[in-house]
Amino acid sequence: MKHPSQILFTHSYFLRFDPKQLELGQPYPPLGTLYAAALMRDRGYRVSLFDTMFTDGPDEVSAVLDYMLPKFFVIYDDGFNYLTKMCLTNMRQAALSMCKMAKARGCKVIVSSSDATDNYTTYLKEGADFVIIGEAEQTLLELIDHIKAGEKDHSTIPGLAFIKDHLPYKTIARNVIKDLDTLPIPAWDLIDMDTYRQSWLNNAGYFSLNMSTTRGCPFKCNWCAKPIYGSRYNSRSPQNVVQELKLLTQIYGADHIWFCDDIFGLKPGWVAEFARLVQQENLAIRFKIQSRADLLTDVNVVAALAASGCENAWIGAESGSQKILDAMDKGITVAQINDATLAMKKAGIKPSFFIQFGYPGEDKADIALTIKMINKLLPYEIGISVSYPLPGTVFYEKVRAQLQQKTNWTDSDEMALMFSNTFQPLFYKQLHRYVHRNYHKHLAKNSLFKLLKDPLHTNARVIKKALSFLYYIPATYIERFKLSQLEKT
């Protein structure tokens, strides 16, 4: 017998379907899902979670559905995680499979995800009763309240898609939540925390959890999609964030946090107040953030980040060519990337770069400028990708006509260029390997200089890194030779 207040939440990210992330072994819980579950529970509904992260595949949900017989089955993806924004085909097929299984058991099937927002017709045809468009918590609450009350007409609910008169129908857009402090703390108790903790300890030696302090991004990079939280920038208060930070560190034992905001601490004065509260509460926590180069040229902001525990800041450097940055509408300069990197290093924060190759118009000279920038600034880490067209972006519209054969990667390591560019797709795969080898060669060279300059004040890590120079010299040469061969074809 179905319970009218029972909601079974799940999401469609399966670690096993993403070999690169499976090998890395550093998974984060589905934060967006936990927010939605917390809100529904706060409003009196019985909620459960089937966390797909460590399962073998979507078929495992069938036994859970048979046992629980939920009234509502909600596939609610984590809109804070870039892996779900990419809409990997492995995960889409898993989501559609779960839709069908739940529908066959008489559940009301509701889906919220970046992919479903962009392709709601597909999901409605494959078993979803409703697709939530954009930020979903308030829409989900209103919808389930509506159904529970026996209402049949859902066309007055903003942010929703469903079948009406045998055709897909989408209601007006819903405004985003402005006061994020009104949301309850995510339902962390629904997660099997021990499994996440053990995976992190085995693969990283520490335990990291994810938090969000903001939603949305006001900047206009023309390749960046914002299907869930949009372009408005709304922030939790520093007091509200510190409350959750205490919970995750003191109750769940996290000793590291990934603040997964698109941009951390953009609101004027926010970082300084956060640093003050962290110190006031004696919270010794390490964390990493995502930000922008133009924001981190401010030495006061960088100092406050360092004082509050920031050890690693990722910035979308993207390219060492100003021509390409301007074509992306990135709104930053190469000089700002340089200044921000130096400011972070001086403050003891490790700067890391997101790098993007293959943007339309990029040529050999632009690629060379990017490699030169990496070798000069030597960020702590680099994340290299090729330009990925996401629906709803200016970039997507530019290359849309070329995406008839392939529009998504299968997993996060596919790195396929899905449109025509200066070089063939295999060139960019090889470029990824070469740039990584070359980057590590320069890191090793830097360590070797430090060792020779001051051999009495060194450590085993520096020595090991310096000795790796012997490996990376020939390795870099080999990858560069392969790249030059592909350049000619």
Compact overview of the structure:
This protein has 489 residues and is α/β, with parallel strands linked by helices. It has helices spanning 19-24, 31-42, 61-68, 82-85, 89-104, 114-118, 120-125, 137-148, 193-203, 238-250, 270-280, 299-308, 322-327, 334-347, 364-377, 394-399, 425-453, 460-467, 469-488; strands at 3-10, 46-50, 70-76, 108-112, 130-132, 160-164, 167-170, 208-211, 214-215, 234-235, 256-259, 286-291, 310-318, 350-357, 381-386.
* Separation of the first and last Cα atoms: 64 Å
Strand pairing plus helix content: what structural class?
Answer: alpha/beta
Compute the average pLDDT.
93
Model regions low in confidence, pLDDT < 50 over at least 5 residues: none
The largest beta-sheet arranges its strands as 2-1-3-4-5-6-7
- Biggest β-sheet strands, sense, barrel: 7 strands, mixed
Q: Strand tally, please?
A: 15
Tally of alpha and pi helices: 19
- Helical percentage: 40-55%
Overall geometric form: globular
Walk me through this protein's architecture.
It is a single chain. The chain is an alpha/beta fold. It has 19 helices and 15 strands. The protein has helices spanning 19-24, 31-42, 61-68, 82-85, 89-104, 114-118, 120-125, 137-148, 193-203, 238-250, 270-280, 299-308, 322-327, 334-347, 364-377, 394-399, 425-453, 460-467, 469-488, and strands at 3-10, 46-50, 70-76, 108-112, 130-132, 160-164, 167-170, 208-211, 214-215, 234-235, 256-259, 286-291, 310-318, 350-357, 381-386. Strands 2-1-3-4-5-6-7 form a seven-stranded mixed β-sheet, sandwiched between helices. A six-stranded parallel β-sheet has the order 8-11-12-13-14-15. Helix 11 packs parallel to helix 12, helix 17 (425-453) packs across helix 18 and helix 17 (425-453) runs antiparallel to helix 19 (469-488). The longest helix is centred in the C-terminal third of the chain and has 29 residues, at 425-453. The chain is globular, with a radius of gyration of 23 Å. The mean pLDDT is 93.
